[in-house]
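Data availability excerpt. The first of two example chains:
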Amino acid sequence: MKLNTLTTNADQDFLPFALFAQGAILIAFSCLSYFRQEMPSVLFYMSLGVATIVCFVVYKVFESRLLANSLLLVTLVAGFVYAILVVLDPLSLIWCLTALPILIGICGYPGNLYLSASLFGIAALVLFQEASIDQSNTLSVSTTLQFLFMILVVTIIGFSANKFRLTYLIKIEKLSSLIVKMKIEDTLTGLKTRRYVESCLRDKFLRAEKLTNAFSVIIADIDNFRSINERYGHPAGDSVLSSVGALVKKTLDDDCVFGRWDGNTFIIIIPHSDAEATLLMAEVLREKISRLKPQTQGDTLSLSFSLGIASSAKCHDLDDLLSHAENSLYQAKNMGGNNVVMG
């Protein structure tokens, strides 16, 4: 995943901090200018502060992050240009340095790169022109060079901090995705976890009661799986589970929900209650499992599958449905395994 794929989300996460930080900075600069009796500067900073408050209202009240982000961007750029072209005093130049990191953060790459280069060019052009026209100006060439150097330093620090922030957000997002995946997907078989399947079953049963849209459940178990673990070890058993899980996913339709129920037991939710279609699906799956010949420690294993079927149309609640499916599975096991029984 590249950094620029998360630019929009990163800008949204950065916006509350940018509004708070710039608001606090503008209040501080307004107070400082007031104590120094620099009323035009006070009006300048207060105007920017009001614009920042408007951005905050748009963000909080109207919940429009994109609009608030755009308004803050325009406010800071306009303030930067106005400070360079009109105000042009040491305090306003310091404020420009505080606005740069926030602009870099809210603009996003590569827009922030173009914006930083443009602002640097405007500052260099205006300041060198002022220094050459009025030699007595407090902004001498050396002062101008120092300020431009500070812009470069602040810009480099801003880009480095922004890159670190985006990298951190990417790691957080990957970790969150992994946690979510672990909750819903069994790491060994690639099928859904029992918790996820139980949640789907509850939702489907409630929907079936309201819409009279019945569905079916298949609970399947690998026959004699314990003997594979005892003879060849758990790694061989895990390999068998993984192969069976892959075959289940490949065989069944995407409309079905399939998961690992417990140990070597699997569960499949069929989105209809057509008995003949469900029975045919179970038989196809049983037949394909019997053809699966995994290799382990030089031996070829023979597998078989026992499956029990139940329909929600014949059950009064979820526990009853699962009980019917499990009883059908036990009957298939008691018949010698490698069978399908419909309850």
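And the second chain:
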Amino acid sequence: MAKSDLRRGGRAHSPILLSTYIESLTHDMDGRGLPQNRTNCDVPRKPSISPSKMSTYLACPVKYRYTYLDSRARWLLKAKSYYSFGTTLHRVLQRFHDTGDTGVATTAEVLAAYEESWIDAGYSSAEEMAESFGEGRQILERYVEDVQSRPAGAKTILVERQIRYDFGDFVLIGRVDRVDEYEDGTLEVVDYKSGRSSVSEEDVATDIAMCCYQLLLRKKYPGRNVRARIIALRTHESAIASLADSELEEFERDITTLAREILSENFDERRPVQKPICEHCDFLIACKQDPDF
């Protein structure tokens, strides 16, 4: 896997996502201490790392700084229709699969919850929003019909839940859309993609977030088989992948090294560099203030 593969949004062409990139880091990691954020009581606060943070850093360290560290740039963030659309669908599916929420079980109840949950931020016009709203209804109708037409082979044990594990230097955090438990004890983490119409096994195997979720579930439920599934909501097409033990061990080493690099990075010295992602980045106006950009 080439280093450039990781720089395109944190993805690679191998189940072991970070190995080649990590090799380039190990030589300059020695002696680089981790920052210690402290509260007013001077109690050490352990830093956290998430799949989103890693993907953002790999795409652009300056964007990472503006997103997670420099509050002065946050006013540049704009509402986006695809975030609103995806969040709405996630909220409805959370209620549909939550066994404690008995009021959202039928198609009619799902669509009622959809109307209640609708987020209208980020749309450029009433026409665009109306089109997206109609599309969302169709997605949910097909989804419920498909789920109810298949025999229940698993029970849902987690919905929209944060999972965390302490790695010593940092805490790895992941928020899963859903986790299902099968009769043989296998755990399947499910991730919804509202903007996709197709998905492949390679897409799942090379997704940093899905690999992190598998690692976190293995830590939380040792000895259990774990796999990951991505569902493309627009077509309800899905694909599954699972990391072998050796792959998971290597992935854990890789993200530990990457996390340490992120947490020891001096972001104040990072200068913006033009990349293809700049065109649609909310922070472009801030980067343009740099005379060398």
